[in-house]
Amino acid sequence: xxxxxxxxxxxxxxxxxxxxxxxxxxxxxxxxxxxxxxxxxxxxxxxxxxxxxxxxxxxxxxxxxxxxxxxxxxxxxxxxxxxxxxxxxxxxxxxxxxxxxxxxxxxxxxxxxxxxxxxxxxxxxxxxxxxxxxxxxxxxxxxxxxxxxxxxxxxxxxxxxxxxxxxxxxxxxxxxxxxxxxxxxxxxxxxxxxxxxxxxxxxxxxxxxxxxxxxxxxxxxxxxxxxxxxxxxxxxxxxxxxxxxxxxxxxxxxxxxxxxxxxxxxxxxxxxxxxxxxxxxxxxxxxxxxxxxxxxxxxxxxxxxxxxxxxxxxxxxxxxxxxxxxxxxxxxxxxxxxxxxxxxxxxxxxxxxxxxxxxxxxxxxxxxxxxxxxxxxxxxxxxxxxxxxxxxxxxxxxxxxxxxxxxxxxxxxxxxxxxxxxx
Length: 423
Prior knowledge:
This protein has helices at about 25-45, 85-90, 125-135, 140-155, 170-180, 200-215, 225-230, 250-270, 330-335, 415-420, and strands at about 5-15, 55-70, 75-80, 100-105, 110, 185-190, 220, 235-240, 245-250, 275-280, 290, 295-305, 310-320, 325-330, 340, 345-350, 360-370, 375-380, 385-390. By secondary structure, the chain is an alpha/beta fold. The strands form four sheets. Strands 11, 13, 14, 15, 17, 18 and 19 form a seven-stranded mixed β-sheet that branches. The longest helix has 19 residues, at about 25-45. About 35% of the residues are buried.
């Protein structure tokens, strides 16, 4: 197919645990090893058995992963920690080789996997920009045409001729993303590294990725921020323990992943902690829809094996860029007798109409309290996704969109002139 950007077939990656990488051997080492092998051969011929070597433990980071990505697709890759997301991106970026299977990358690929990847610490910011462009196969003239835009986006004008080893982690990250996004790769691969930046930088990055996608280029985006995945991506892939367990639209992938979190929580921890969170008593695991400027509720089911006291519960709501919108904390004394006993409880928070801009948000609970032995514990729920519906008229990039009323009236020019004179 001519519109295919990526093709992954039977991709697997095995790591050996507890085995040191063998160092390079000198001629002296080789002679000594050969002598040792000869002695072991004599020992075996003498009837003595060589001690059996225990095979190294193996860990499969990826197992038989296969999928295709068309040009212009924006694919969100989601899954728990250790699911194999970063390993997949490293193989696609040619940083590591697969144990089995293969991946066809059809086009120029730019990757932002972790702070510092692809940068030489002794080179200046300017030199690293040209180096990365050359790696992507761009000519000097092409890099030069994008140079000012990259430096401006990264806000490193004063330090562009300073070795990047002296950069702060934020400066390093901004420049790395600017290079990866502005040197026009046909395929952009972005890992969870965006979580390192501040809220303003995350918004700029997501806006830039939206711009890249609108120009028909392909984006692979790994993130735990389900709101950002929902807002940015049109397709989704779910990995679990190194296997691809679901692929489809972004909203279907998020629903599958959310359902798997609830199922595993119920099976793996039958009577411990938060069991589920829902918005507006939604009976399904599809993201709930909340009408803008209408009250809504968030409910969490808490299943405890112990008694808890001297603590508090917090409801948190974040927007798709990870900005904290609501942080509502209440003590256990205010909602009960100051103690929550072992058993199953349902906590509901009724919120008034909020001035939230239409878009995607996540909600989750935290509880911090002392158990029966007096030890402090923190219990955190999974995040639930919900979407605020409404008109985008008058909405900017702000988080809040209050229902303001504007008036225009004719000013008294003579009075205004007199007031100015008096001043």
